[in-house]
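Deliverable D5.2: sample structural annotation.
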Amino acid sequence: MITDTYNRVHNYLRISLTDNCNLRCFYCMPEQDYIFTPAAQLMQKAEIVALAKLFVANGVDKIRLTGGEPLVRKDAGEIILALSELPVTLTITTNGTRLDHFLDIFLRSSIRALNISLDTLQPEKFLLMTRYDQFGKVMDNIRLMTAHGFHVKVNVVVMRGVNENEINDFIEWTRDTPVHIRFIEFMPFTGNHWESNKVFTWKEMLDVIGSKYTITRLADEQHDTAKKYTVPGHAGTFAVISTMSAPFCSGCNRMRLTADGRMKNCLFSRTETDLLTPMRKGENILPLILQNVLEKAEALGGQFTPDFLQLHAEEINNRSMITIGG
């Protein structure tokens, strides 16, 4: 088992396949003309599989593939099928634009659930937020995946003054459609222009939803990052990821591999461990993995507290979201 100094067992690995993306969401990508990591510096398919096997041998039983947009990687399908052979729950986070190209791969793989990032239900706002006219494609692909029985979660980063007025539109969507909305508080990363007054909190979201709907709290599972709810009678559910106002670090079981083979023990960690270079040299990297997790801070990467109103984003030492992999 991979355990930190706070006795948290880490059995969940998030692997970023690429920092490339076919959208340009402003809160994720610092600049529209962002320079992506050269392919030679990325983990190759065999390296990803070898690293995954090492983590699985040490207790990991869940792997999530992230990006950038993981499905823009040319060998993404091969990687998915290779990882499907491991004894893990395999999932993926995607912007949804290329799911129709990968339906056969998903049906052949062990993936049965996926997270799709979608921050608005308004086509014009989608274009403004992502800089690409792909709203119709994403919605078509969500319908495609639900029609084939996949468990679809929709990740919505809620930002005051941007899309908080759509919260109940997303809730209404769950009335007849089996989608599971995950509202996410806006988090600070390098270059994403975070400000505390843009954070729309968990409690504010519940107030908005409760003003129109009857809400029932669902039971939490171990290691849940989301507080889950349902509106009785709705086909779908919703949840809130309250990273900023009510963090959930005490039950954290997550580790992250960036696309260039660096390990982060927290989304907000200051430091990271290069696994790819020593691996390519034939060195034993298990001690590096164990030490990385032992150095994990108790909460929020040791960089800030839930009193986010006092937080100055420029003081956080971290990567941009797209280079971390979420």
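Annotation notes: Residues 12-324 form a domain with the TIM Barrel fold (CATH 3.20.20.70). The first helix runs from residue 45 to 57.
The annotation will be released with the project's public dataset once the embargo ends.
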